[in-house]
Amino acid sequence: MVNRKDLEPERSPAARFGQLLRTLRDERGWTQDELGERMGCSGTHISAVETGRRPPTQRFARSADKALGTGDRLERQSRAVRHTALLEGFPEYVTHEARAAEIRLYEVGVVPGVLQTSQYASALTARAVERGAITPEQGEERLSLVLERQAAIIRTPPPLVFVVLDESCLRRPVGSADIMDDQLSALAEFAALPNSVLQVAPFDMGDRRPLSLPLYILTMQNRSLVSYAESALRGQLERDSNSVVPVLTAYHQLQAEALSQAASVAMIEQLRKGSP
Q1: Per residue in 134-160, pLDDT tens?
Q2: What is the CATH number that goes with domain 90-117+148-272?
Q3: Fewest C-beta in 10 Å: which of 35, 104, 126, 229?
Q4: Could you tell me the pTM of the whole model?
C-alpha cells in the first residue's frame, strides 16, 4: 500500500493502541475514511490515532468498538494511554478487576488502592509528586483510578475479596498519625464485611513466605484466571492459566501461613492503640 507508515507498537501505549486499531480495521478490509464515516469522524483523524500522533479519547475508543463490533476491547486498551502514571499492564488489569467474581491481593509496603482511604491515597500521591516521580496531572490520574476501583468492588452482587497484607503495610507511616489511624480503622471495617477476608503476613514468617512482591489474582465469572504482578519498574499481566495456576498455589500457601483474620484484626487494633 502506497504511503503506509510502519507502526512501532513498542514505542508507547498510544502506538500500541494505534497498531490494534489498524489491525482490526484491516481485518474488515476498511479504509481509514470508511472507518471514520462509521464513527462520525474523518479518515485523517483515524490516521493520526493509528500512527500515535493523536491519543485516543475514551469516547473515540467506545465509538471505534461500536463500529468494529469489538465489545470494549479498544476502550480497555485506551486506558493504558490515559493512565500514563501506571505501570504497563495495570490499566488492563483494572478492567478485568471490575468484572471479576473473586479478587485476591497481596501487597507489600502500602495498603492496596482498593482499600485506601482518600486521605491515605492523597498523602501517598502528594509525596510521589513532591519527589518528582510523577506529575501533578498523573497524580490526579492515580487518585481517580483509586476511586474507580473502589466503586467497582461494591457493585451488586459484590465480588469475594481476599487480601493478605505484609506487616509492613500496617507499620509504614503514611501522612499524619490521624491518617494512619483512619486507614487502620478502615481495614478493620473491611474485614467485617461478609464478602471479604483480611489477613496479615507477619514479619516472623521469615523464609516461609512464598511471595515477596505484590501480586493480584482474579477469578472471572467464567472461572478463567488473570494475574498481575509488579516490581518497582514493570508490571506483568498474565491470562494463561498454565502461568497463573502456580502463583495461585503460592497465594494459597501464603494464606495458610499468614495470621487468621481474627489475629490480623487484633494486630491492627493493637497498632491503633500504639502497642508494639
Answers
A1: 778 778 878 888 888 898 888 889 999
A2: 3.30.870.10
A3: 126
A4: 0.70
